[in-house]
Automatic annotation (TrEMBL):
Coiled coil: none annotated. Transmembrane segments: none annotated. Substrate binds at residues 327, 365, 369, 398, 426. One of its GO terms (biological process) is lysine biosynthetic process via diaminopimelate. Belongs to the Orn/Lys/Arg decarboxylase class-II family. LysA subfamily. Pyridoxal 5'-phosphate binds at residues 290, 324-327, 426. Its EC number is 4.1.1.20. Its cofactor is pyridoxal 5'-phosphate. Pfam families: Orn_Arg_deC_N (PF02784). This is Diaminopimelate decarboxylase. Homodimer. It comes from the Bacteria.
Length: 483
């Protein structure tokens, strides 16, 4: 399908946009050429993010909306999602899987971004959902995705969650252990319903990704050991309340090379043959998610290459196929707007700290995985100011509250606004209120329209659900309650 196209602004490169006359002249003179190992420059970051462009007057623009307009209206930190990017990416993914004998159903991994508006945009394109909790199941259904298009993954579903899924008419439950299978059988019998089950297999394949987000190694908690899978499948097929429909696999996240997928899918194909040799039917293969994006300068995983890997390894088995992408669809569609609270000088000779009003409680990925997110100033003059080395941190009381050490960024000062890039997946959903910081506001843009899709949390809401037991002796508090 087509890429996003914004005739008035769209800059596939800053040079092209400058030729269109909308870009400050300084861009071309000041844009540094990136050397291997160096941080990508502002121009580099813009060149591969078609929905973002830099304008002489409006500054950084997402689709057709100047991000300063959003920050003026709502303050920061504020998340912004691009509906056009979600659609464009979904269409490219769907197109990559079209035109083959075996159709592939796409189930958006709701854990990546569970906002109802995001789910609605993707559902309108044809997406189903992959959920990992009763909450996600209910969110997906609240967004209008019918249960018959939802698969339920996860290593620890409760009996109540199983009940909810069965009553809703879930398409498929991906079971991850013998113990879970027994529990599901009991729940299904109790409900008088049949549970459509795919066994999630752990192929013991290294996805070559960060240790905290790999899921297909023998040491990971996920999935059923490969060598026990055929026996368990036979057991499942004989259990009351269970309808064994197929197999599932998900080997990890942020995977940019195809070889791990190929290796894992080849093992899956072998397992299908083994199970069929026992006279059992395997009708569905759920190939999981995990396709990676380009945060810094890595090549993003290509849907066409994934489609080819799936069809090569699994296409001749006569099964239905499914995938569960999250990050690839939503990651590049979101930014987090923030303001520099202050520039704090470092020790002599050491880089200063840019202290932002966004923190690890908002965007947790850098603290959790040392993840790298691009940073772009919102101001057109700052975007191409001379580059300096800085540490970019949040105000939370943890040294881990750091968005980047020794980052090469255009000079910014207190009050400067910036966008943290590629925050549409595993951004807002992983936020917390640590340090009593309210959850940030959220906005969706679509062409030249924008709307608030979640209000900034009121500070009072942070303690609205707190209850002080009446036996707490308030008489011991000092008069006036202060220090
Ligand atoms: C079972 C399952 N499916 C799909 C996904 C989505 O992964 P990604 O966002 O990397 O595509 C995950 C998360 O890693 C997952 O655990
Ligand atoms: N939350 C992780 C990915 C984990 C995916 C869920 N299994 C991230 O931000 O990269």
């Amino acid at each position: 399908m087509t890429d996003l196209c914004f005739p008035s602004f769209h800059a596939s490169s800053t040079l092209e946009a400058a030729e269109q006359g909308g870009i400050v002249a300084a861009i071309m003179a000041d844009a540094p050429l990136t050397c291997p190992g160096q941080d990508p420059s502002v121009s580099d970051l813009l060149a591969v993010r078609p929905a973002l462009s830099m304008h002489a007057v409006d500054g950084l623009v997402l689709e057709d909306v100047p991000l300063n307009a959003i920050a003026d209206a709502l303050g920061t930190p504020t998340w912004v999602m691009s509906a056009g990017t979600l659609r464009a990416r979904y269409r490219r993914l769907a197109t990559a899987f079209e035109g083959t004998d075996t159709p592939v159903s796409i189930h958006f991994a709701v854990k990546a971004n569970d906002h109802l508006a995001v789910l609605r945009v993707l559902a309108a394109e044809g997406a189903g959902a992959d959920v990992v909790s009763g909450g996600e199941l209910r969110r997906a259904m609240a967004a209008g995705i019918p249960a018959c298009r939802i698969v339920f993954s996860g290593v620890g579903k409760t009996a109540d969650e199983m009940r909810l899924a069965l009553r809703a008419g879930i398409a498929q439950i991906n079971v991850e252990s013998a113990e879970e299978l027994d529990l599901l059988s009991a729940v299904a019998v109790d409900e008088g319903l049949d549970a459509p089950v795919a066994l999630r297999i752990n192929p013991d394949v290294d996805a070559g990704t960060h240790a905290k987000i790999t899921t297909g190694l023998a040491t990971n908690k996920f999935g059923i050991p490969y060598n026990r899978a055929a026996d368990l499948y036979a057991h499942a097929a004989a259990l009351p309340g269970i309808r064994a429909v197929g197999l599932a696999m998900h080997i990890g996240s942020q995977i940019t090379r195809m070889q791990p997928y190929r290796t894992a899918y080849a093992k899956l194909a072998e397992l299908v043959r083994t199970i069929r040799a026992r006279g059992l039917a395997v009708d569905v293969l759920d190939c999981g998610g995990g396709l990676g994006i380009s945060y810094r300068d890595e090549s993003e995983g290509a849907p066409e290459a994934l489609a080819s890997a799936i069809h090569t390894e699994l296409g001749d088995l006569g099964t239905r196929l499914a995938i569960e992408p999250g990050r690839w669809l939503a990651g590049p569609a979101g930014v987090l707007l923030s303001t520099v609270i202050l520039r704090k000088s470092g020790y002599d000779g050491m880089p200063p700290f840019l202290v932002l009003d966004a923190a690890m409680n908002d965007l947790m990925r850098p603290s959790l995985y040392d993840a790298w997110h691009g940073i772009l100033p919102l101001s057109p003059t700052e975007a191409f100011a001379p580059v300096e080395q800085v540490h970019v941190v949040g105000p939370v009381c943890e040294s881990g509250d750091t968005f980047g050490h020794d980052r090469s960024l255009p000079h910014m000062k207190a009050g400067s606004r910036l966008a943290l890039l590629d925050c549409g997946a595993y951004g807002m959903v992983m936020s917390s209120t640590y340090n009593a910081r309210p959850l940030a506001a959220q906005v969706m843009v679509d062409g030249n329209r924008w709307s608030v899709i979640r209000d900034r949390q009121q500070t009072e809401a942070l303690w609205a659900a707190d209850r002080i037991p009446e036996w707490v002796d308030t008489a011991l508090l000092p008069a006036g309650g202060g220090l």
